[in-house]
Write a structure and sequence with these properties.
This protein is α/β, with parallel strands linked by helices. The protein has helices spanning about 75-80, 100-110, 125-130, 145-155, 170-185, 195-205, 235-245, 250-260, 280-290, 350-355, 375-385, 390, 400-405, 415-425, 435-455, and strands spanning about 30-35, 40, 65-70, 90-95, 115-120, 135-140, 160, 185-190, 215-220, 270-275, 300-305, 310-320, 330-335, 335-340, 345-350, 395, 400, 460. Helix 13 (about 400-405) crosses helix 14 (about 415-425).
Length: about 475
Amino acid sequence: MKKCTFFVSLLLLATTFAGCNSEKLYEASINYTIEDGVIVLSEPQRQEGQTSLLEFRAEPLDTVRVGFVGLGMRGPGAVERFTYIDGVAITALCDKYRERAEEAQHYLRAAGMADATLYSGDEGYKALCESDDVDLVYIATPWQMHVTIALYAMEQGKHVAIEVPCANTVEECWQLVDAAERNRVHCTILENCCYDHFELTTLYMAQQGLFGDIIHAEGAYIHNLEPYWQHYADNWRLEYNQANNGDIYATHGIGPNCQALNIHRGDRLDYLVAMSTKSVNGTKLVKELMNEEECRQGDQINTLIRTVNGCTIDMQHNVMTPRPYSRMYQLVGTEGFANKYPVEGYTFKLDQINKIAEPGTLPDIENLNHHTFAPKEVVEAMMEQYKHPVQRQLVDGIPLEEYSKRVGGHGGMDFIMDYRLIYCLRHGLPLDMDVYDAAEWSSMGELTRISIENGSKPVRIPDFTRGEWNKIDGLTHYFAE
């Protein structure tokens, strides 16, 4: 087959080459080629002095000194949650608007903690990152600032935790990987849905083999944002939706699925195909709120992904239509099935349950029907038996699952996410989610846009581990001895 090769940069929007069929080309942050109908992005080589951060362990920190950047919608809740975690000192608070940083002090005072140093302005984050009194920079700003702040923090030797998505382009994803490897610091993604109680339990079931071989997963971010658009400072989120087609908020759906499929730990995302509907509600919205005639993002984005080991993932994104909230979380295995939205439940083959479950731990299941969800009493017993070790982890003598529900944050999953981050930093353990997860999950935004703008061509997903995706056998949540 004749191969037509195209090189595309931010400055080159459309070009044709002699000898190739005429095709319209679209900008991308990284040069790419179209090889046998598949879009392949260039992958930068690891530079001298950089080494892999898979299973990376940093020096333990007895007390983790945290600086928060971004105190608008998500940041204040994180500050409050951190006041419930032992071994934390909140030493710095930063926002573009100083009054927001000042307002966040009351969480510290309510917890009997010392006031934090305040930073503000467009570049207030720089002084925070340069401070000798900060170990971890927690970034909850608008998406457009995530990478700028994270890179600056890592160059100052700070660990970073970044709200989702961590980056907006593939080039930015590589920048995060290289900065973390170069400076030997953690760069984690604040993907709270990986700590949802159902997702954690289901993950542990999968790790114990209850579903057999998982061959398919589904995930989504379906959330009508109509009541919230005007609450985003300076209209940053609607502006981003207006300017970018693609699944720009994929991490809530893809994160839990990648963990269940052991992505970067025995399997790898291979390629994706994406398409979008026309923009109807989005166009009306941007015309009303921005006086713009076009919304580039379709109202519904659909993406199919295939892994190297032959599994598939179905992803959706929709923030424009009145669909009930859904992350569509679903695992399809050869021996069982899990589903969270719109109905939560499990289905298993009877012989699989009998083979794996401990004798006497489940109700009578002889009449299990494979065409429906397992009976409620069976599901409840199984969810108790297969509760993830993270959920059982004790905090002041209370299981973390129960403790997290008392603190709150999306039903407690936000607190579990924060607690695990601090726990691993304090004990010098590998984090549950590393920089390669942060890069790959965040890269979906631009990769899906490239596919859509090129007529839904397949796009090869970059290997951010640079060939080391199969050196670890399965995901491990580490605990101190």
